[in-house]
Write a sequence for this structure.
């Protein structure tokens, strides 16, 4: 450097100033476009944004799923193509056996499920109302701690990693990978209380679309399929007292619920091949659910809860005064049996 | 041999590491000393607890760290706090070891979820026999549960819809099996 002429020093200095200016301007530009810095976010805020994004984001993508087998150990891997539009509208096409060709459409008020192997389309009303989401969000954040644990990349996009763990006691929990710019859950894994993976999903690829770019026709089955809908499964929601009036047996409710759980809804349920009129009660804590089905065909079941482990969850049954009561959900066997045992017998 | 000398040898004696004249001298002392026999019993109980709940591997580097600390030039000159000699009284050593072993055992039980249930009930035998009728009821419950879960707030509906479809296939398989002559 000592051999530089005064002119050369000036040129070198000018180059340095220009490089500094470019660096400063580049940093300013990138800062304006980059995701919200982690310091400004909490896990709970990310979860709030993810819940809203779930219903309002338009995209198309390919998901890889890992699901528990109904019988036996291990997880089954499936892939699905998903298109979504604001208002919770969605079309899901499964791409791999044994569900290859199965297509689900969510329109604003109905869910259509078509299985080409049986050439059958079923239609069910959807429960979701905007007010439900607020209540679910509040319930979720009052029962779970949402902790931002890091950042990563999923489907080529930067994501926040958030752990949802039960606040009251150790139990099943979830890890979510949430898009840093669009807030959609790009991957999630459910673990049991002993950190064993029980279910997972991940977008392998995703392309976000504008709301105007989605065509309504995508979210309803073609007209020829609709004409041949062979099974209608309405799921009108009742209050428990109203459901008690409808079913022809004394509806029982458990006196014990797992911590944080409350009644989500009460519905009619077709029982067995004879389609006897039964009842279904749904309980939830904002993330996990328990389904309780009461059918007027107690059969030879024992009166104390009997359990089987099927599809990654415990299924628990008992007979109460001639009723068959079955419960399943993402809670421990101990909780499920305690819930079932708390159902009173006698008139 | 006095009680202090005897109790210093008890740990080695309890795991059969003490041999020769020391072993004989200790056995002679134990024969006539109820306090030392009691200390030996407590030591044996502690070791039994540790054996029952399994060993715990020390973290990597612990051995070297301890050895480095012991061989540090100024280690022997370090001032001992006032309670050091009290803690090292032979009669208290067995009590301290028992307490430590009990704490370790309790931690192991807690980690395995055995105190408040945890995983313990999951290991009980499953009692719902999956007859064809029960299989249908079970598949129906799983299907219904999966369909309800599709309404959840965190976007796992694609997985839950698949689960519901798989349960429906199971249901139809059961119906077909029952229809066979």
């Amino acid at each position: 450097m000592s051999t530089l002429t005064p002119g050369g020093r000036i040129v070198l200095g000018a180059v340095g100033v220009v490089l500094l200016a470019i660096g400063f301007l580049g940093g300013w530009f990138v800062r304006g476009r980059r995701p919200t810095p982690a310091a400004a976010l909490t896990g709970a805020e990310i979860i709030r944004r993810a819940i809203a994004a779930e219903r309002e984001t338009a995209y198309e993508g390919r998901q890889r799923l890992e699901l528990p087998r109904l019988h036996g150990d291990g997880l089954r891997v499936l892939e699905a193509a998903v298109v979504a539009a604001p208002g919770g509208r969605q079309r899901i096409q499964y791409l791999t056996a044994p569900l290859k060709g199965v297509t689900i459409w969510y329109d604003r008020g109905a869910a259509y499920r078509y299985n080409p192997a049986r050439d059958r389309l079923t239609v069910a009303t959807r429960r979701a109302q905007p007010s439900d989401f607020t209540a679910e969000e509040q319930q979720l954040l009052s029962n779970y701690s949402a902790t931002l644990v890091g950042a990563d990349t999923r489907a080529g996009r930067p994501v926040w990693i958030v752990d949802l763990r039960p606040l009251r006691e150790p139990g099943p929990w979830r890890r979510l990978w949430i898009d840093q710019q669009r807030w959609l859950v790009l991957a999630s894994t459910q673990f049991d209380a002993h950190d064993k993976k029980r279910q997972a999903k991940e977008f392998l690829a995703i392309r976000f679309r504008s709301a105007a770019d989605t065509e309504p026709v995508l979210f309803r089955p073609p007209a020829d399929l609709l004409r041949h809908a062979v099974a209608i499964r309405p799921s009108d929601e009742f209050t428990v007292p109203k459901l008690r009036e409808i079913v022809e047996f004394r509806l029982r409710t458990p006196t014990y619920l797992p911590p944080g759980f409350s009644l989500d809804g009460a519905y009619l349920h077709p029982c067995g091949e004879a389609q006897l009129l039964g009842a279904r009660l749904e309980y939830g804590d904002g993330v996990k659910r328990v389904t309780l089905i009461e059918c007027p065909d107690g059969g030879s079941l024992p009166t104390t809860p009997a359990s089987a482990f099927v599809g990654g969850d415990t299924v628990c049954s008992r007979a109460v005064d001639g009723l068959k009561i079955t419960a399943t959900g993402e809670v421990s066997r101990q909780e499920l049996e305690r819930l079932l045992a708390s159902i009173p017998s006698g008139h | 041999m006095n009680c202090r000398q005897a109790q210093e040898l008890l740990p080695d004696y309890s795991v059969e590491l003490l041999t020769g004249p020391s072993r004989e001298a200790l056995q002679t002392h134990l024969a006539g000393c109820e306090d030392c026999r009691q200390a030996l019993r407590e030591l044996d109980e502690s070791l039994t607890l540790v054996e029952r709940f399994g060993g715990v591997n020390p973290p990597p580097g612990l051995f070297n760290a301890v050895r480095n600390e012991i061989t540090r030039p100024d280690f022997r000159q370090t001032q001992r706090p006032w309670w050091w000699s009290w803690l090292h009284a032979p009669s208290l050593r067995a009590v301290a070891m028992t307490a430590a072993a009990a704490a370790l055992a309790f931690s192991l039980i807690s980690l395995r979820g055995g105190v408040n249930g945890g995983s313990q009930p999951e290991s009980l035998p499953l009692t719902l026999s999956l007859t064809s009728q029960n299989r249908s009821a079970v598949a129906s419950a799983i299907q219904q549960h999966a369909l309800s879960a599709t309404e959840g707030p965190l976007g796992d509906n694609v997985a839950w819809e698949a689960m519901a479809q798989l349960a429906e296939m199971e249901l139809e398989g059961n119906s077909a099996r029952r229809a066979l002559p």
